[in-house]
Write a structure and sequence with these properties.
Helix content is 71%, strand content 1%. The protein contains 14 helices and two strands; from the N terminus they run H-H-H-H-H-H-H-H-H-H-H-H-H-E-E-H. Strand 1 (231-232) and strand 2 form a beta hairpin. Helix 4 (66-97) runs antiparallel to helix 11 (190-206). Belongs to the binding-protein-dependent transport system permease family. It comes from Gracilibacillus xinjiangensis. This is Carbohydrate ABC transporter permease.
């Protein structure tokens, strides 16, 4: 009994230390966003500003057209998320329920592509989009990211955990594969679908490298790219950069805290059946 309590206490201490380490960058970001310029690089570090500079947030918004960047981020995030959900549902259902020649081989090859670093694909993808004439368009920002092997894998594992008897009963009632997918499988896989959608929203909202490569005009830049406006030849205005960064990540933090139970449920249920 004592050993069990000691073990539980040790786990709680380690988890608490991990939580503190994870929160420190966020605390420092918020603290810096409220500092005066002379406090940003002060040594020893200043955690609590002598005077809270809330005007840093309004000044940061004047450095670049963040209203345009916000609209672009919303458009790209929503459209790419919807696109990924559609392709993921169709592909996951095919790999979990439909028997066709070479199904497992194709799925294994898809999983193998996850081992290829994304940086390796940047130049081939850029050349492809350039040949299509999509550079500096919404198509370049959205279409390449409307499919995800990880999302397909995640949802396939969830579909495998749904009893096959439901499929047999639906076929007896004359239900087609398409209707069974959209009216039975998809609703039952709601936790996994929410997980896929949330992960996609977060990744799309925070994307930096790809948008800066395929866009040339300010009208198509997204919020993470807009943060580079605070880096100039004269140096980096850290207090303004941290203020803008706090506003950029705020929607994602709120979304995550509201929906985190669905992420946990969706990931946990994928392990029911391999």
């Amino acid at each position: 009994m004592v050993k069990s309590a000691l073990s539980r206490t040790t786990i709680y201490i380690l988890l608490s230390l991990g939580a503190v380490l994870m929160l420190l960058p966020f605390v420092w970001m918020i603290s810096t966003s409220l500092k005066a310029p002379n406090e940003v690089m002060a040594m020893p570090p200043v955690w609590v500003p002598a005077e809270w500079k809330f005007e840093n947030f309004t000044e940061a918004m004047r450095v670049a057209p963040f209203d345009r960047y916000f609209i672009n981020s919303v458009i790209v995030t929503i459209v790419s998320t919807i696109g990924e959900l559609i392709t993921t549902i169709l592909a996951a259902y095919a790999f979990s329920r439909i028997q066709f020649y070479g199904r497992d081989i194709v799925f294994a090859v898809l999983l193998g592509t996850m081992m290829v670093p994304s940086e390796v694909l940047l130049i081939p993808n850029f050349v492809t989009l350039s040949n299509l004439g999509w550079i500096d368009t919404y198509s370049a920002l959205i279409i390449p990211w409307t499919a995800s092997v990880f999302a397909i894998f995640l949802l396939r594992q969830y579909f495998l955990g749904i009893p096959k008897e439901l499929s047999f009963a639906a076929k007896v009632d004359g239900c087609s594969e398409f209707k069974f997918l959209w009216y039975v499988m998809a609703p039952l896989a709601k936790p996994a679908l929410i997980t896929v959608a949330l992960l996609k929203v977060i990744n799309s909202w925070n994307a930096f490298l790809w948008p800066i490569i395929v866009t040339n005009s300010q009208e198509l830049r997204t919020l993470p790219v807009g943060l580079s406006a605070f880096t100039t030849e004269a140096g980096i205005k850290y207090e303004l950069l941290m203020a803008a960064s706090s506003m950029v990540i705020l929607p994602m933090l709120i979304l995550f805290f509201i929906m985190q139970k669905y992420i946990v449920a969706g990931v946990a249920r994928t392990g029911l059946k391999g």
